[in-house]
Write a structure and sequence with these properties.
Blueprint lengths: L21 H12 L11 H28 L2
């Protein structure tokens, strides 16, 4: 099956050094991957829904990252 292109390269690597910043690195990498969108022309309901879900996941991850950043910087 041929897939359409994505808007940017997906990150497959997270620095797994076991330190206090590890959870943030995981979440930040997943958050950056939410910016990878399917590029489809003409619009396609399936790919549009997957891009919308990425946007929704990004908002949730932004909230979690903000909480952890506040915790780690107090």
């Amino acid at each position: 099956m041929d897939l359409p292109p994505v808007s940017k390269e997906y990150l497959n690597y997270v620095d797994a050094t076991p330190d206090r910043e590890y959870p943030l690195r995981i979440l930040r990498t997943h958050r950056q991957n939410c910016d990878c969108k399917w590029v489809v022309d003409p619009p396609n309901p399936l790919y549009d829904a997957m891009n919308q879900h990425n946007d929704e996941r990004a908002k949730i991850l932004d909230e979690a990252i903000a909480i952890l950043e506040k915790h780690f910087h107090t």
